[in-house]
Each structure stands twice: as C-alpha cells, then as structure tokens.
UniProtKB/TrEMBL annotation:
<feature type="domain" description="Carbohydrate kinase PfkB">
    <location>
        <begin position="117"/>
        <end position="395"/>
    </location>
</feature>
<keyword id="KW-0808">Transferase</keyword>
<dbReference type="GO" id="GO:0016301">
    <property type="term" value="F:kinase activity"/>
</dbReference>
<dbReference type="InterPro" id="IPR029056">
    <property type="entry name" value="Ribokinase-like"/>
</dbReference>
<keyword id="KW-0418">Kinase</keyword>
<dbReference type="InterPro" id="IPR011611">
    <property type="entry name" value="PfkB_dom"/>
</dbReference>
<dbReference type="Pfam" id="PF00294">
    <property type="entry name" value="PfkB"/>
</dbReference>
<protein>
    <submittedName>
        <fullName>Fructokinase-1</fullName>
    </submittedName>
</protein>
C-alpha cells in the first residue's frame, strides 16, 4: 500500500504564540459522546449507532452480532489510552522536585485556563497524527472529557483524519466525580536552556486518572478487532487500570490484532510498582508482537548494558515477540528479530525540540511491519520521521510532515559514529546476520555483517510516496 499524497494536506505551523487559532471550530461530528442520544462508532465512513437506552439483553445481543460480523481489519493502527492536551509554557525554571511543591506549582498553573495558543494534542495523539500523515488509517481509543479541552482534541484529531472511539464505562461515570471525567492535561514546561519538565494530575494520585473504567465496551472491542495493530505505551497506566489494559491486550491477541508496546520511562516504575502493575508489565513484554524502548529503558528492564544483547534477551522472554526495537537518539536505532539484526545510524538534523520524537517514531515501524518492508528500510524510515519531528517545535500538530520526511530521505545525510558502531557490533553478539545501513555506495558482506547502502534504501522508499518529482531527485 503506497503512501497517499493526501497525507500532505495536514497543515503544520511553526510553533509559537501566534501559531494556533484561539477559537473552536465546532463540528457536529465532534460532539462528545456524553451529549449524544446514540453512541456512534465511525470507521472508513461507516457509522453504527447504538441507542443508549436499549435494555441490557437487547444491547448485548446487538453488540455480540456486531463483533461476530466484522472480519476485515480495515484500520491500520489503533492507539489505546494516553489521550491528553499538552500545555506548553516557557518558564524561568523547572518545577521543584518535591511532590508537595510540584503539586502546588501545577495548581497555580491550573487556576485559570491558559491561552489556547499554548495548547497542543499530546500523548498517543502524537503517534496517531504521525501515522495518519504516512497514509495509515488510524483510530484513537481513549477518554476525553466533555469540556473545552476534550473538544479541542476532537477537533485536532478530526482535522488529521483520525477516528476517536470513546472509552466510556457508564456505570463508572455515574459513580465518579466530575473532576475525574475531565480530559487529562499535561503541563510541558520549558526552561531557558530548553530543558523540559512535565506534570499532570496523574502524578499526584495513587490511582489512574480514569480508574472508574472497569471493562472494555463493545465499541472499543470492535475498534480493536478492526485494527491490524494496537499500540499501547507505559503512560497508558496513568490513565487506565492495569487490569483494563491487560484485558485489551488479551482481546487483541484473541482477535488476531498485533500488539505494539513502548514502556517508556514508566517501565522502570512499573517494574517495581504494585503486584498488579508488575504483572501487567510482564504480560505486555511477553505478549507484544513488537517492543520499542530506548537503550536506557532496555537496560533498566534487563540489567544488560549492550543494547543488542538487551534486545535479544527481551526477544527470548517474549511469547509472541517478533521485533525488539532499541532507540538510541542521535546514534540511531536497532531492530532485533529472531533471524537477523538491523542497525541504522540516525540522520544529521538541526534539532530544535525532541518532544514527540519517540511517539512519532512508532508510526513508520507500524507501516513497515504491516507492509512487510525490509527491516533496515523500516528503521531508516523511522529515523527519518523522528528527525523530522525533532526539527520542529513541540509535538501534536508539529510532528513530522511527509514533505520533511522525504527531504531527509533524499539528503543521504547519515550521522555515522564509526567508533560507536564498530565497538557495539564486535561485542558479544550472537552469530546471526547483521544488516547495517551505510553511506557506502556499494553493498557488501563480510562474515555476518551485511552493509546495505543508503542509496539503495532511499531508492526503494521514495517511490512509495508516489511523487514523481521526488523520485527524480533520488541520488544517482
């Protein structure tokens, strides 16, 4: 499936105080589910409406029929939870480290809604937007409140062509305080040295933000069943209970949906958290088809400093694991499978802001996985998307555009740290094929190391974008 030119229609402005419109553009399709007399599930232009007031027996029959009748997976990726609004503010200094002082700091910030020009879609919205811009069909599953922030998220995702499936538990809603129903806000604080601090109400509660959700609705199950990939990350545990997240993974496995999981910084705290959190983390690591981690996160979960050996250890522990991807920032990334290892140095880029790079990196990994691309091509594309995001300011609507990605792929500007890669590949690596993306024009192989030229990879990737003017500019 080639990448679609219409993905270029997603506008992306440079980040700044005047970048975002301050008025909400209302749309009937963005009305919160709490205001509807029917729940509407929309996918590929088809809407299924289920009345709220059906009796339990009739409703369950109708839901069972819907789930049985859907056999085609016509959505490429669904993200689970972690839908939030980032409030990006410049501050003279980052918030204090103590919990009490941080909470007081956040409450002062929250006293009145900041100007809308500082709002941005965050969390899994970053992954969803990056995926949509690559031409992937995308659904965002999660909870957003029936207030201005929730309407903002509906608006942004709708404009990017992303469906939203509300993760409602109406029994839980009836028994919950109004504050626990509100859209999750994440304060992204940037100091004069461009260091980032993050805080949200989830940081100050022992329970997930939406702890009142107890089970998957029929609409959520249908969305999972219709998707080729279900993506979850560690921040989902800030929203949803471990048991609910586990039920989503188990259902995905049952209906043949591949599971991608990125534990992120939460992986370390989950590994020493409650017994329920530890169990859920272990299940995610064992049952996921694809794991994505930074080298630090891989070391934290395995105790192994070498990123290739750490990835191989995670692969061995997995029951269904096919790929383990280790992200190494400016040095590049590694993909470990049972038969081979791919290594791709990063691209040289004018880095402005790294927020959202890891989130957007997921999208091309999904693309490569479902389209069975060569693994080194998949990594090159992911590195290009991550670099394009880093060249912008902030995440959300500022993640990589297709134009920036193609510009980077045409540049052939790899940032190869020869000393690092030579040292890494010579240390304690099992005797399996290693594919290395290289600036060298010619392909070559010595022992288990196979060099693949970036020229070859770029010439295979760019035609998928279906822009003849770009294909003509591939390096000759």
């Amino acid at each position: 499936m080639p990448l679609q030119p219409q993905a270029l229609k997603s506008p992306i402005a440079s980040y700044g105080p005047s970048s975002f419109h301050s008025t909400y553009r209302g749309s009937p399709s963005l009305i919160s589910p709490f205001n509807r007399s029917h729940y509407v599930f929309a996918c590929k232009g088809v809407e299924i409406a289920v009345p709220k007031l059906l009796s339990t027996s009739i409703a369950s029959i109708k839901h069972d029929w819907k789930l049985r009748s859907v056999g085609i997976k016509d959505v490429d990726v669904a993200t689970l939870g972690n839908l939030c609004v980032d409030i990006v503010l410049n501050v003279p200094k980052l918030p204090p480290s103590s919990v009490e002082e941080r909470k007081a700091f956040m409450e002062r910030l929250s006293a009145s809604p900041p100007d809308k020009k500082y709002w941005e879609a965050g969390g899994n919205c970053n992954t969803a937007i990056a995926a949509a811009r690559l031409g992937l069909g995308c659904t965002a599953i999660g909870h957003v409140g029936n207030e201005i922030y929730g309407q903002f998220l509906f608006d942004v995702l709708h404009d990017e062509g992303i469906n939203i499936v509300e993760m409602s538990d109406h029994v839980g809603i009836a028994n919950s305080s109004s504050s626990s129903l509100e859209t999750l806000l994440c304060w992204v604080l940037v100091d004069p040295l461009q260091r980032h601090g993050f805080c949200s109400r989830a940081d100050f509660s022992k329970e997930p933000a939406f702890h009142w959700m107890k089970k998957l609705s029929a609409e959520v199950k249908l969305a999972i069943k219709k998707s080729k990939v279900l993506f979850c990350n560690g921040y989902g545990f800030d929203d949803l209970s471990p048991s609910l997240l586990l039920s989503a993974v188990e259902y995905a496995v049952e209906v043949g949906t591949s599971v991608f999981f990125d534990p992120g910084p939460r992986g370390k705290s989950l590994s020493i958290g409650t017994l329920e959190e530890q169990k859920a983390l272990n299940q995610f690591l064992r049952m996921s088809d694809v794991l994505l981690l930074t080298s630090d996160e891989a070391e934290s979960l395995t105790g192994i400093g070498n990123p290739i050996l750490a990835g191989q250890e995670l692969l061995k522990r997995g029951i269904r694991t096919k790929w383990v991807i280790v992200k190494m920032g400016p040095r590049g990334s590694i993909l470990i499978s049972k038969s081979s290892i791919a290594c791709a140095p990063a691209f040289k880029a004018n880095v402005i802001d790294t927020v959202g790079c890891g989130d957007s990196f997921v999208a091309p990994i999904v693309y490569g996985f479902i389209h069975k691309m060569p693994i080194v091509n998949t990594l090159a594309m992911a590195n290009a998307v991550g670099a394009a995001t880093a060249m912008g300011c902030g995440a959300g609507r500022n993640v990589a555009t297709l134009e920036k990605v193609t510009d980077i792929l045409r540049s052939s500007n790899l940032n190869v740290d020869d000393e690092f890669w030579t040292d890494l590949l010579e240390k304690n690596v099992d005797a399996q094929e290693i594919i290395f993306l290289s600036n060298d024009v010619a392909n070559g192989k010595s022992n288990h190391l196979k060099h693949v030229s970036f020229h070859k990879v770029a010439s295979e990737l760019l035609p998928q974008f279906k822009f003849p003017q770009l294909e003509e500019k591939v390096l000759s």
